[in-house]
């Protein structure tokens, strides 16, 4: 068992879902739009997700993400913190994102939807 597996506190669902990461916010005056990177998840859990990216994100940075789960009509929006970054295959990076609770977070909805998917997966 690797050290990253030992740190996991919940079951992970290996699932490729569409993830939208806002890597740069829109300007306050509206002159510049937000910069959003679209990628895919590698796995999901109640408190985080792992994604692949063509560029590394800086550990400790906080980003808004939206996840479009297959079979769901709308995206779940949440705040995340970059916990780790590792080189992956084909020049990509694996990025571990921890979900953060916030007033506008979809974290409760996320946990409900993920629990439903885990039950379906059993």
Proportion of residues in helical segments: 10-25%
The biggest sheet amounts to: 6 strands, antiparallel, barrel
Envelope shape: globular
> Total number of β-strand segments?
7
Number of helices: 2
Assembly state of the chains shown: single chain
Radius of gyration over C-alpha positions, nearest whole angstrom: 15 Å
**Strand order across the biggest sheet?**
2-3-4-7-6-5
Query: How far do the termini sit from each other?
Result: 23 Å
Computed structural class: alpha+beta
Mean pLDDT: 86
Low-pLDDT runs: 1-6
- The sequence of SSEs as H and E is HEEEEEEEH
Strand content: 35-45%
What descriptors fit this protein?
122 residues, 7 strands, 16% helix, disordered N terminus
Task: Give a quick rundown of the structure.
This protein is globular. It contains two helices and seven strands. It has 122 residues and is α+β, with helices and mostly antiparallel strands.
């Amino acid at each position: 068992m690797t050290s990253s597996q030992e740190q996991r506190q919940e079951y992970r669902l290996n699932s490729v879902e569409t993830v939208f990461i806002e890597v740069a916010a829109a300007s306050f005056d509206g002159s510049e739009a937000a910069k959003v990177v679209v990628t895919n998840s590698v796995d999901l859990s109640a408190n985080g997700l792992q994604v692949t990216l063509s560029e590394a994100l800086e550990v400790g940075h906080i980003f808004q993400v939206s996840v479009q789960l297959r079979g769901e009509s709308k995206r779940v929006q949440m705040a995340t913190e970059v916990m780790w970054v590792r080189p992956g295959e084909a020049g990509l990076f694996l990025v571990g994102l921890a979900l953060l609770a916030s007033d506008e977070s979809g974290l409760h909805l996320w946990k409900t939807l993920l629990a439903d998917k885990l039950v379906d997966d059993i």
